[in-house]
Design brief:
- It contains eleven helices and twelve strands.
- The protein is an alpha/beta fold.
- The protein has two domains: 201 residues, Periplasmic binding protein-like II (D-Maltodextrin-Binding Protein, domain 2); 147 residues, D-Maltodextrin-Binding Protein, domain 2.
- Strands 3-2-4-12-6 form a five-stranded mixed beta sheet, with helices on both faces. The chain has a three-stranded antiparallel beta sheet with strand order 10-7-11, with helices on one face. A two-stranded parallel sheet has the order 1-5.
- The radius of gyration is 22 Å and the shape is globular.
- The N and C termini lie far apart (74 Å).
- The structure holds 2-acetamido-2-deoxy-beta-D-glucopyranose (2 copies).
- One 2-acetamido-2-deoxy-beta-D-glucopyranose (NAG) binds next to strand 2 and strand 3.
- This is ABC transporter.
Length: 361
């Protein structure tokens, strides 16, 4: 009797230990074809609720329309808001045991390993996950993975700067022709912009930043705003290095990568919540995200077997002056993040203006 009891106790401790440390969290590995998951998603009601980090309400319209036209009858109920606010709201749902979001895609990369440890994420490997670079995923339990590489190049408007052939360094931006021409996101308002400044100043020092301030940049909130402003004919500013427009950011806009300091790139990271109300629909969405069909449409794929359409930059691992794994380490180092944020707040003041999510520029 007592031996049986001891055995049971041991067994219980094993389970507790495994749960606590995330052991024995082997994922469910998807084997169904997309069409079969699609059927299951439709039967479930045909809606998947997604929270996506970003700074413009309509930033993910192309993802929504790609998904909905690929899977008629499905609705991608997607909300875009700042990752730094969405993550706390996810914590609240978890704490209150009231998860109503199915899928989360955020820039706050430090949250995902924590949520995995807390058992908040679904251990589920979509088809194609095995092709994703190991550095961009939770290889053991498949609870999170990057779905697309975001990166910030130097971008400028060739109409507004007809004499500029190329901009190939951050140092170039201190030349007289860029006086009053720069539009930049406050580094103290967005941690990925903060990391961009940090990486530049590790190479070029605060002297570079002092020179930058002398150029009288226009400081804005949101990382889409600089590209919007430099692209528009009715604003005077013409160059930035804090916007993501992919390889083809629009008419009259050229991009280049810097040769004097690293630029920021990272896998925008996705997970399905374990208590997602629409698990089959979330699975359909994530299988679509990692499918070669979708991955061929993004600028830089997270999959090793898919090359970009840009022959100069075939894949994220072979672009000079960027390390796509560095951002996650930076985000984990909250002490450095806070110290840097206040360095810039002291120089620039707190971010002014409405968030572009509240109102357009
Ligand atoms: C869409 O998502 C929001 C949360 O972002 C949620 O409040 C709303 O109920 C969802 N709509 C549907 C139809 O599921
Ligand atoms: C520039 O044009 C846009 C779109 O037409 C408009 O919303 C914006 O207010 C204009 N800005 C200025 C400074 O004139």
């Amino acid at each position: 009797m007592s031996r049986l009891f001891t055995a049971l106790l041991l067994l219980r401790q094993c389970f507790a230990y495994d749960t606590l440390l995330g052991f024995n969290s082997r994922p469910l590995v998807e084997t169904r074809p997309l069409e079969e998951i699609y059927d299951a998603a439709l039967k479930e009601g045909g809606t998947v609720t997604v929270w996506h980090g970003g700074d413009e309400k309509n930033q993910q319209e192309s993802l929504k329309s790609a998904f909905e036209s690929r899977f008629p009858g499905m609705t991608l109920n997607i909300t875009v808001d700042l990752s730094k606010y969405l993550d706390g709201k996810i914590d609240q749902q978890l704490y209150n045991n009231n998860v109503f979001v199915d899928s989360i895609i955020l820039q706050t990369l430090q949250d995902f390993p924590r949520w995995q440890q807390e058992g908040a994420l679904l251990n589920y490997a979509p088809v194609g996950l095995d092709k994703v670079y190991p550095a961009f995923k939770d290889s053991i339990s498949a609870s999170w993975y990057g779905y697309s590489i975001f990166f910030w190049s130097i971008s400028w408007n060739t109409r507004k700067l007809p004499d500029v052939k190329s901009i190939s360094s951050y140092g170039d931006l201190l030349k007289p022709e860029f006086k009053n021409q720069l539009v930049l996101t406050y580094p103290n308002d967005d941690d990925a912009v903060l990391f961009a400044f940090h990486q530049i100043m590790q190479e070029l020092g605060t002297k570079w930043f002092d020179g930058l301030l002398k150029q009288n940049p226009r400081w804005v909130r949101g990382t889409a705003t600089p590209l919007t402003i430099l692209s528009a004919a009715n604003y005077s500013q013409s160059a930035t290095f804090t916007s993501f427009g992919g390889f083809n950011p629009g008419n009259n806009v050229k991009i280049n990568f810097p040769n004097d300091a690293n630029f920021v790139s990272w896998p925008q990271t996705a997970a399905i919540l374990k208590n997602a109300p629409h698990p089959e629909s979330a699975k359909l969405f994530h299988n679509y995200l990692l499918s070669s069909e979708y991955q061929r449409t993004v600028s830089l794929s997270v999959r090793q077997d898919i090359k970009s359409s840009n022959s100069l930059y075939p894949d994220i691992m072979h672009i000079p002056r960027t390390n796509p794994t560095a951002f996650a380490r930076f985000m984990n180092d909250r002490i450095t993040v806070e110290r840097l944020r206040f360095f810039f707040e002291n120089r620039l003041g707190s971010a002014q203006g409405l968030s572009p999510l509240v109102d357009d520029i």
